[in-house]
Amino acid sequence: MDTDNNENVGSYGDCCKHCGGDCMTDKHKKRDKEEYTKLMNRLKRIEGQVRGVQGMLDNDAYCIDILVQVSAINAALNSFNKELLSNHLKTCVKNNIQGGNDEVVDELIKVLPKLMK
Questions:
Q1: Which of 40, 55, 87, 100 is 20 to 30 A (C-alpha) from 31?
Q2: Tally of structural domains, the chain
Q3: What is residue 117's predicted lDDT score, i.e. its pLDDT?
Q4: Within a domain: 2
Q5: Residue 40, Cβ neighbours under 10 Å: how many?
């Protein structure tokens, strides 16, 4: 396993403080600075888009204009998911399979239908 970038991939233990116990699993991944920054920047842009839609509602914007912006937010979230899934496959899935843990494939198969809605 690549311990430099993924020291906690697939590890079990107490849930970390940042999630307050809201994680779907008790697995965690230590992301490298580049991956973290890219993902966080995407989320901040999405947050700005959501605030923009809130402003549109406050300013009585036309429904179609709001719908177009919401569609852009959905596309941005899909792009975020694609980036995160790609990183997951290249690190977590790869490292778990190489380590003899094929359960990660079942985990992925279970979550894919939720991502494809």
A1: 100
A2: 1
A3: 81
A4: no
A5: 11
pLDDT of residue 16: 43
- Cβ neighbors of 73 (< 8 A, separation 6 or more) are 46, 49, 50, 53
Residue 44 lies in a domain: yes
pLDDT number for residue 25: 67
For residue 91, being part of any structural domain is answered with: yes
Please name the residue ranges forming H helices in the chain. Answer: 3-6, 33-58, 63-88, 94-98, 103-115
- What is the per-residue pLDDT for 48? 98
- List the domain range (segments joined by +) for residue 65: 33-115
Show the tokens assigned to 77. 């979230």
Question: What residue ranges of the chain have pLDDT lower than 50?
Answer: 1-19, 21
Q: How far apart are CA 53 and CA 47, in angstroms?
A: 10
Query: Running DSSP on this structure, what letter comes out for residue 17?
Result: G
Q: Give a yes or no: residue 96 inside a domain.
A: yes
